[in-house]
Amino acid sequence: SRAMSTQLRPQQHPQQLQQQQPLQQQQPQQPSNDSGIVDATHDRAAHDVLMLQFLTAARNNRLDEASMLFYQLLGHVAADEPYLFATLALAFAQDGRCDQVRTLLKTMRSRDDLLGAVDIAFYKRLIRALCERRTEAAAELARELFDERAQRLSPPPNRGEYDTLLRACGRVGRTRGMLKVYHNMLAAGVVPA
After folding, report:
1. What secondary structure letter does DSSP report for 117?
2. Contact 178, 147 (CB under 8 A)
3. Which residues of 130-151 are buried (b: 16+ CB within 10 A; e: fewer)?
4. 3-class state of residue 112 by DSSP
5. pLDDT at 37
6. Mean pLDDT across the stretch 48-54?
């Protein structure tokens, strides 16, 4: 049977054998980091993967996972920290985690390199997310942020922003908060609709 198997097997030409050998040797080789030098391309790719995982977790309301990835990303050289802080703060606001929002905002305010992320658009998104939660704690934090935004940034809030905050205070039964917002609105020269 051995003689038959060698006879049935087609004979290969020596050039065909040489062509097959390089294919077997072309397996990808992992770069060795024995020297301690970090490959910049690999580091950037790792950052990009972590960033995508972070954004996906934050947007899909998996906030514990997003928090873990947030702290991993802060260790990367290429991390866009203002964006990370703003994204996580917004995700916490959308989930109604007011204490975490306060903690992140406190950190953002204390660092000069993060103040760039605290702009009007950030305040508007954060206040709107808190107003949609329909809880007393979220409405109170939204009012605090609204007052802070009105004091720190120009232009002053417009009628739409005041209306959003008035509705949020009204939904949770904060009539005193509504009256305070309304008086501030009139004092700022904004005419109610």
Report:
1. G
2. no
3. bbbbeeeebbbbbbebbeebbe
4. helix
5. 47
6. 89
142 phi and psi angles, rounded to 5 deg: -60, -40
Written as six digits, the tokens of 187 are 């004092």
pLDDT at 39: 57
Tell me the torsion sign for CA atoms 131, 153, 67, 79. positive
The residue assigned the tokens 């501030």 is 184
Tokens of 190: 């904004």
| 3-class secondary structure, 174 | coil
Tokens of 168: 């949020």
DSSP 8-class letter at 78:
T
CA-based angle 113:157:170, to the nearest 5?
Answer: 110
Residue 107 pLDDT more than 90? no
Tokens of 72: 């991993």
Contact predicate 101/90, CB 8 Å:
no
- Compute the chain's Rg from CA coordinates: 29
CB of 182 closer than 8 Å to CB of 192 = yes
- Per-residue pLDDT band for 98 (boundaries 50, 70, 90) equals very high
**Which tokens go with 102?**
């306060």
Which residue type occupies 39?
A: D
Rounded (10°) angle between helices 98-110 and 120-132: 170
Average pLDDT, the chain: 77
- Pair 127, 145: CB distance under 8 Å: yes
